[in-house]
């Protein structure tokens, strides 16, 4: 008999509990992926390229035995299950609003196939399943730090011991019929600054956790001191791999807890582990409050005055193009459009600028980020934006308005980051690049707003809200 292993955002073979569950359930396993037009339509080009390359990596590891089809999962999965006579379909749970609704539809459709084919969810893409860590009264956490404490106390499983040889794989060529059209894995002519796939993820992680030479032996060790320095580029860049499940966070946490017992890497490992917890936290927040995907988590903010219309459109275009005349903001926005990645400190700076200096709805910025980012992820992105906009769970207070120049001086003190991304400013040395006190090159724009005045305006709007 055969079980179906349906991949989604878990594009790997190591540490994959659903693979072990499928192999346990039947003699043979058919691996499949459904190109879902709804998800494809909502992914930016770079994310699609990352997805397709991840599928290629998976297919290679399976010696070409990944079945890829295109269509609505609620149509495709039952068809495939029926064609191979599968009794069970195995997945890693997906807790996003779309994922939950889709899986309910698939489950209902499967129950109509022959003898009730079951959809089995084993594991998720998170260290701790979203929604599992709650307060003692069962209520979800609204504040990160107590969630973090409870998350650590709860703990997580050790990595599942799975891999390419964990199952006897069915060759899709033996099961495709006129109803099941195998689809080639698509390709896109897009450069990725981060190579996709499980093997690339494991390589990158080994470099970052240390011990393999070519990155830095102490990347994790230095993380706590260096993580806020975009000019040093000292973060792991693991986010896209986590987003597509090329690696499971548990694999990383197993290393991190080991690194915590070494004096040289302890502080960095704890600090990194805390960031991974943010990812779990925001997935939990989205599961508990699905409205927060596109609406203010804190509904009190629904009444805040935002700018919409021609002027806001023009300001938004300047922001997207990295032509605001604020060097640190422009550098961040150009890193985004130029590479599909942006350093976390920059994400906070440019988001604050859009919401509090330009008074544009955070949703506009969040949509642009999702379009451009390779790691674009609904839970982390929307709640990152809402943290900045002040309407999220334990958000940065609205009245704390980042001064872009001060942020630049503090976090890019060498000015190297700005020069790397804004070529018009390449000849201005040192940190002077942030203030441009001696004038601006003629091809670099004047500031599109007066930060001081817009800060006052942001505070006025906030005060009007709290009245
Ligand atoms: P590292 O510093 O090496 O962190 C390690 C891992 O921890 C990351 O890969 C990520 O999985 C997780 N992590 C770190 N910080 C956060 C955080 N604040 N929230 C959630 N997870 C975190 N992250 C995304 O993965 N996708 C997004 O779409 C996204 N959008 C964001 C939008 C805004 C406005 C803000 C402020 C943050 C956003 N983040 C997002 C969080 C964070 O900026 C990125 O995860 C991080 O920059 C990725 O780089 P890295 O892997 O080198 O991070």
From TrEMBL:
It comes from the Bacteria. InterPro entries: Crypto/Photolyase_FAD-like_sf, Crypto/Photolyase_N_sf, Cryptochr/Photolyase_FAD-bd, Cryptochrome/DNA_photolyase_1, DNA_photolyase_1_CS_C, DNA_photolyase_N, Rossmann-like_a/b/a_fold. The keyword Flavoprotein applies. Its cofactor is FAD. Binds 1 FAD per subunit. GO terms for molecular function: deoxyribodipyrimidine photo-lyase activity; DNA binding; FAD binding. PROSITE patterns: DNA_PHOTOLYASES_1_1, DNA_PHOTOLYASES_1_2, PHR_CRY_ALPHA_BETA. SUPFAM superfamilies: Cryptochrome/photolyase FAD-binding domain, Cryptochrome/photolyase, N-terminal domain. FAD binds at residues 223, 235-239, 272, 275-282, 375-377. One of its GO terms (biological process) is nucleobase-containing compound metabolic process. Keywords: Chromophore, FAD, Flavoprotein. Residues 1-125 form the Photolyase/cryptochrome alpha/beta domain. Gene3D superfamilies: 1.25.40.80, DNA Cyclobutane Dipyrimidine Photolyase, subunit A, domain 3, HUPs. Belongs to the DNA photolyase family. PANTHER family: CRYPTOCHROME, CRYPTOCHROME CIRCADIAN CLOCK 5 ISOFORM X1. This is DNA photolyase family protein. It comes from Williamsia herbipolensis.
């Amino acid at each position: 008999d055969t079980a179906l292993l349906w991949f989604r955002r878990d594009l790997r073979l190591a540490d994959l509990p659903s693979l072990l569950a499928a192999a346990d359930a039947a003699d043979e396993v058919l691996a499949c992926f459904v190109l879902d037009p709804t998800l494809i339509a909502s992914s930016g080009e770079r994310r699609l390229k990352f997805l397709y390359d991840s599928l290629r990596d998976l297919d290679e590891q399976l010696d070409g035995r990944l079945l890829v089809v295109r269509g609505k999962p609620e149509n495709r999965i039952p068809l495939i299950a029926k064609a191979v006579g599968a009794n069970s379909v195995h997945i890693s749970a997906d807790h996003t609003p779309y994922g939950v609704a889709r899986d309910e539809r698939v489950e209902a459709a499967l129950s109509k196939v022959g003898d009730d084919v079951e959809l089995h969810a084993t594991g998720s893409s998170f260290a701790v399943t979203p929604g599992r860590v709650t307060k003692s009264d069962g209520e979800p956490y609204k504040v990160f730090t107590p969630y973090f404490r409870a998350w650590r106390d709860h703990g997580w499983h050790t990595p599942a011991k799975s891999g390419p040889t964990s199952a006897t794989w069915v060759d899709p060529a033996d099961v495709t019929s006129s109803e099941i059209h195998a689809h080639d894995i698509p390709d896109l002519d897009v450069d990725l600054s981060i190579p996709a796939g499980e093997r690339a993820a494991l390589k990158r992680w080994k470099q970052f956790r240390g011990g393999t030479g070519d990155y830095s032996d102490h990347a994790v060790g230095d993380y706590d001191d260096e993580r806020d320095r975009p000019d040093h580029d000292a973060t792991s860049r693991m986010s896209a791999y986590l987003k597509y499940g090329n690696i499971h966070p548990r694999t990383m946490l197993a290393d991190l807890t080991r690194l915590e017992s070494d004096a040289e890497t302890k502080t960095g490992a704890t600090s990194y582990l805390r960031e991974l917890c943010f990812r779990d936290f925001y997935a939990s927040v989205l599961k508990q409050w699905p409205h927060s995907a596109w609406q203010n988590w804190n509904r009190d903010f629904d009444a805040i005055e935002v700018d919409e219309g021609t002027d806001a459109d023009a300001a938004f275009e300047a922001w997207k193009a990295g032509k605001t005349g604020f060097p640190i903001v422009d550098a961040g926005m150009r890193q985004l459009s130029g590479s599909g990645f942006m350093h976390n400190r920059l994400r906070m700076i440019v988001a604050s600028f859009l919401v509090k200096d330009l008074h544009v709805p955070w949703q506009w910025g969040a949509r642009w980020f999702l379009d451009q980012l390779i790691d674009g992820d609904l839970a982390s992105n929307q709640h990152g934006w809402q943290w900045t906009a002040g309407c999220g769970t334990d958000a940065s207070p609205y009245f704390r308005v980042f001064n872009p120049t001060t942020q630049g001086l503090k976090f890019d003190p060498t000015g190297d980051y700005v020069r790397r991304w804004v070529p018009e400013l390449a000849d201005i040395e040192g940190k002077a690049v942030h203030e441009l006190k001696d004038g601006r090159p003629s091809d670099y724009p004047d500031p599109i707003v007066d930060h001081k005045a817009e800060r006052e305006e942001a505070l006025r709007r906030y005060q009007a809200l709290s009245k």
